[in-house]
Amino acid sequence: MKAKFEQEEDGLAPSTARLEAFSDGVIAIIVTLLIFEIKIPELHDASSVGVGSALWAIAPKFLGFVISFFTVCIFWVNHHYFMHALRRSDRSLLWYNNHLLFWLAIVPFVTAFVGDYPLQPMVIALYALVMMMSTVAFASMIHYVFFRGHLAGAHVSEGLKKQEFHRALFGAACYALAGVVAFIHPYISLAIFVVLPLYYVVPRLLSRTEVARHV
Q1: Per-residue CA distances from 97 to 24, 57, 68 (Å)
Q2: Strands (E), 28-70
């Protein structure tokens, strides 16, 4: 144990730098692919009315792009501050992170699907499933880091660890609810997709860990 501790103090333990760099690159590609799903509309009428009608026809796709872009960026911001709460990485963490990126990589596909069929219950439920699994993947990574791998820095309290994990589970439960409600009232599911990301705009781990570092 002493030798392991000395390795970490000397900077020889695996850091999160490469994991963060890889994640940043993958997420950058994901948000770029989102806009590629919006095709330039064909204009059968070049007048202002014709252009307006063409843009209105792709409005659901653009709205889907905005929501998904915003949501994926929130995942990235929370992921960034989560990584800064760790003192080191390990092999298991790499695969937990890959699991998260797998589900996020499907977001452009389901976003385009919802853009084409914005009120189709099965399509909305599929979007909800992908977002739920993305959140479950994040929650799984949080659980491993805080409670099994013990990779967090000493400045992260036990109370904050539990709060972050429960916060992630709350998001997964809300997306699961959206998937079920899609078959009853699709507009409620769409409202959940818009409102829920706002809860995660500011990472709770940010303010708490920054304060702890300076106390």
Answers
A1: 12, 37, 20
A2: none
pTM given for the model: 0.85
Nearest to 125, CA basis, from 109, 136, 137, 114: 114
How confident is the model over 53-85, as pLDDT tens digits? 778 888 889 999 999 999 999 999 999 989 988
Q: Are the C-beta atoms of 165 and 142 separated by less than 8 Å?
A: yes
Q: Of the candidates 187, 204, 91, 75, which has an alpha carbon nearest to the alpha carbon of residue 133?
A: 75
Q: How far is CA 140 from the centre of its chain?
A: 13
Upper half-sphere CA count for residue 16 (Cβ side, 13 Å):
21
Q: Is 57 exposed, middle or buried (0-12, 13-18, 19+ CB in 10 A)?
A: exposed
pLDDT digits (tens, 9 = 90+) for 118-133: 999 999 999 999 999 9
